[in-house]
Every structure is written in C-alpha cells, then in structure tokens.
C-alpha cells in the first residue's frame, strides 16, 4: 500500500470517531435549556432549538426562523468579571444566579448575561429584534429579566 492510501485509510478510520465526539459534546448542553423553557419565558408561540455548532452550543429561533437567543458554554476559568470591567462590557453584578453573574453591555439596554457555576461559564445573548415596537422595553427579543430567568433555569441544572 502506498503512502496516499495509508493516509486515506487513517483519515477514514478517525473521522467517525471525531464526529461522534463532537456530537456527544454538543448534545450535553441541550440538557441545560429546552425550547419549551425558552418559549415559556419569552411568551412566544413557537421556539426551536437549532443544530449546534462548536462556538454556539445552543441557538434558539422563533416561529419565523429568526435567531432569538444564543447560549454558550465554556470552562469556569474563562469567566473574568474584572476583565469585563476593563473592556467596558460590565453593567452590574447580579445575585441569585450561579456563583457569580453580571449583565452586559455597560450601556442600556442589556442583552447579555454572563455567569459561572461549578465547572462552567455560561453566556446568554439575546438577538436584536428588527420588528420590535416603538416603546418596547428593549429592541431585543429578551429583556434582562427574562435572561435572568433563563440563566437561573440553566444554573439549577449544573
């Protein structure tokens, strides 16, 4: 067998293992927040959990298919409130969510929430709603209070 065939055989034998590993890792985050929970907190008729990517483990869309919420997971050591203050994305500390939490950005309205609990750091980010009504509490799909509720639900399962 020549080198090309040996290389091809090596790739073919490892590829299924790589796919299995990424699938099992991605699936582990779905246990922290369901589409039904997001739908309840958002007060929407329909919410769907879209297939995961490495950088966005949980991405939720509304009934029209527009992205409404991203939930990202990382190791707890990546959580750094002091760095967030330095770069201007820290608004205020939040109590009752995990071991430590804060809202972001520093300007109103807030549309992101960061927290850590146990081995994980979690970021919830609401997407901009281009169809929000004038006078709505926020131009994003979720208020900071709704993000807090979702964060509490996630933290309770970690």
Notes on the protein architecture:
Helices cover 35% and strands 24% of the residues. The chain has helices at residues 3-29, 35-42, 81-87, 144-156; strands at 47-50, 58-62, 67-75, 92-93, 100-104, 112-117, 120-126. A 7-stranded antiparallel sheet has the order 1-2-3-7-6-5-4, with helices on one face. By secondary structure, it is an alpha+beta fold. The chain is built from 4 helices and 7 strands. Mean pLDDT is 80; it is low at 1-26. It is globular, with a radius of gyration of 19 Å.
Q: What would you call the structural class? A: alpha+beta
Examine the coordinates and then state which fold CATH places here, giving the name of the CATH topology: Protein Transport Mog1p, Chain A
Could you name the CATH class? Alpha Beta
Number of domains: 1
The counted number of beta strands is 7
Shape: globular
Q: Uncertain spans, ≥5 residues at pLDDT below 50?
A: 1-26
Task: Please give the count of helices.
Answer: 4
Q: Averaging pLDDT over every residue, what do you get?
A: 80
Beta-strand fraction estimate: 15-25%
Q: What's the helix-strand series?
A: HHEEEHEEEEH
Q: Helical residue percent?
A: 25-40%
Q: What does the radius of gyration come to?
A: 19 Å
Q: Please give the alpha-carbon distance between the first and last residues.
A: 50 Å
**What kind of sheet is the major sheet?**
7 strands, antiparallel
Give the second-level CATH assignment, the architecture.
3-Layer(aba) Sandwich
**Strands ordered across the widest β-sheet:** 1-2-3-7-6-5-4
């Amino acid at each position: 067998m020549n080198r090309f065939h040996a290389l091809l055989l090596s790739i073919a034998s490892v590829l299924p293992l790589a796919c299995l590993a990424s699938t099992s890792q991605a699936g582990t985050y779905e246990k922290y927040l369901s589409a039904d929970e997001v739908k309840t907190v958002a007060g929407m008729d329909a919410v769907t959990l879209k297939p995961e990517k490495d950088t966005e483990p949980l991405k939720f869309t509304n009934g029209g298919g527009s992205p409404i919420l991203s939930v990202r997971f990382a190791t707890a050591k990546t959580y750094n409130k002091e760095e967030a203050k330095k770069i201007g994305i820290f608004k205020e500390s939040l109590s009752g969510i995990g071991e430590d939490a804060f809202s972001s950005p520093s300007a109103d309205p807030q549309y992101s929430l960061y927290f850590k609990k146990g081995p994980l750091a979690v970021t919830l980010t609401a997407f901009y709603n281009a169809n929000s009504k004038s006078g709505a509490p926020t131009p994003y799909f979720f208020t900071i209070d709704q993000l807090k509720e979702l964060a509490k639900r996630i933290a309770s399962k970690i």
